Amino acid sequence: MVFVRKSVWAAGGDFTDPILYWYAKGVGVLKQRAIDDPTSWRFLAAIHGINTQQWQQYGYLTNGEQLPQQSVQDTYWNQCQHQTWYFLPWHRGYLVSLEMIVRDAIIKADGPADWALPYWNYSDTAQPNALELPSAFASQTMPDGSPNPLFVEQRYGDNTVPIKLPAQDVTLNNLLIPNFTGVATGGSSGFGGIKTVFSHYGEVNGGLESKPHNIVHVDIGGRNPVGLMSDPDTAGLDPIFWLHHANIDRLWEVWLRRDPSHSNPIESAWLDGPLDRGFIVPLTSVQDWKFTPKDVLQTSSPNLNYEYDDLSDPLEGATRIAQRLRRLGSSLNLDSVSFSNMDNQQSVELLGANSVKLDLTGRTVSTQVRLDNAMMRKIERSFTTFEASESSIQEPDRIFLNIENIRSAKDGAVIDVYINLPSGADPANHPDLYAGSIAFFGVRKASLSDQPHGGRGVTEVLDITHIIDALYLSKGLEVPNLQVQFFSRDELTPDDNVTVERVSVYRQGQ
Ligand SMILES: [Cu+2]
Question: Does the 320-509 domain belong in CATH 2.60.120?
Answer without folding.
Answer: yes
